[in-house]
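Example record for the data management plan.
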Amino acid sequence: MTTTKSYALSPMWRLYVAAWLSYMLVIALVMQADTLLAGRLDPSLFWRAFVSIAPSAAMLALLWPLSGRFERRAVAGVQRFVIHILTAVAFATYAHTVLVVTQNPPPHPLSWHLWPFLYNMMSYAVVAGVFHLVRANAATQRQALATQQAQTLLVASELGALRSKLNPHFLFNTLHSIIALTGRNPEAAETALFQFSNMLRYVLDTERAGIDRVTLDAELDFVRDYLELESLRLGERLRVEWDLDPDLGDCLVPALSLQPLVENSIKHAFNPFTRHGILRIESRREPDTGLLRVTVRDDGPGAAAATIEASPGLGIRTIGRRLDLDYAGRAALRIDSQPGAGFAACVTVPTTP
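Corresponding structural encoding:
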């Protein structure tokens, strides 16, 4: 297979050429302002403007590879400034020489030569500044892209960890509870085994198919199985209240985005205590924005914001990162908790992709 190399000008160079051609046109029109007022046009002045300005435009274009060399070699600011001063003086001298040769003006005082020289120095500074800004902007975009890619890889690895781990304590406790049920209530043990296998199948299916979005109903079914199995151990200490909008079940949410929030409540609001507690799960459509809002709330001891931020767990941190990356700011995870006031985690996502 053969490939054809394109030599089309980049947008930056098209803009550069267009700017200089526009400038030449303005200069040619200014040079014949009097004749234009008299209703005449001298085409030769356009050629004279081109001949006098085009060499300078071509010379200034060399600032682009020069700025690239500065960037690749990480030239210090003071060294850049000195080099630019020297090259600006050389350019201004060259440009003024071209002007004198092409226009062959009569002898003039030194001040007549000084002002064009300073003008060319300014032209050099403007073009050099623009080229450096373009390169700085491109470097910023590359850095932002690299950061986003790094964040994406981090979230993907953390999601893989979530898929592969299901809390080992949960697995151990669930298997222990099922074994204990086998003797006294075989039917309940069989139901628990089916729920356990459904959870594992859900995790494996999303991983094998590379699925990152599932329906809210599917995610909530996974959460229900998880809570049913936890209730084998917690018994009456765990009371779950469901307040769901049935019209939102087909909305898509990130896979494994709700179970870690529920697991967090089980770990901090139920496991350490013998008292009864309430876990409430709600789904709503926000009236102002139309976003899907799913809230997981417990009446446990809560925690200060600094404590939550310093938590080493993957679950909540990974959910926040996934929402930021997947929805480009249109989704969010909000935490509402104070010591002694319970813990609430609220996920909001668009109801349409």
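Summary line stored alongside the record: The longest strand covers residues 277-285.
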